[in-house]
Structure of Sodium/potassium-transporting ATPase subunit beta-1-interacting protein:
Amino acid sequence: MGCCKSRNILFFVLVLQLLLVVERLVFDFLGFMWAPIICNFIHIAFVIVGIFGAHQYRSPYVITYSVWNLLWFGINLTIIALYLEIGMITHKDDWLSLKTNHKSWWANNGFGCGSSSSNSTSSSIMSPDGCIVKYEFVESIQCGTECILAFIGFWLGCWFVRTYHEDDDHFDYIGGFDSYSAYHPPTKSSRMQMQPIAS
């Protein structure tokens, strides 16, 4: 019973992670943010591995998903540090677009943003003016949400594996789920009984 409960909660978190990473992937494609795009595709692959592992009760796959969530947590913390300029490296160093001089889609298309320059020769030259929420905060909020889900996914994966192994200890491989049937053969409905041949 505990395994099914943890499995359902894990499925919910997995589907939520999948939806959020696809949403994030779309906006990263619009802004040509190549490093996050690569990481998002890898994350999608590991979420699919987690879905398969939870569906098939395969502990190694769920453990792989859980370990990836720790790495995903670290990647998103790094992106938050880049956008909020915590440390020496910032998003202005252009690491997230792999030195292609592109900015986040949210930089020019955010909530209430207008362009301060009428000459729009390059999207990297335009600076947003009057945004309700700065794009650095929008990207950080997205990464923060991914961090929360990665943390929850890690612990749910561990809980699922632990619960599954506890439920699995009661399974009798010889006779099925009923331990009584392992010691007493089932009664035959046929009238013909098999007898050993005496030599």
Q: What stands out?
A: The chain has five helices and two strands. The beta strands are 114-115, 128-129. The first strand starts at residue 114 and ends at 115. The longest helix spans residues 135-168.
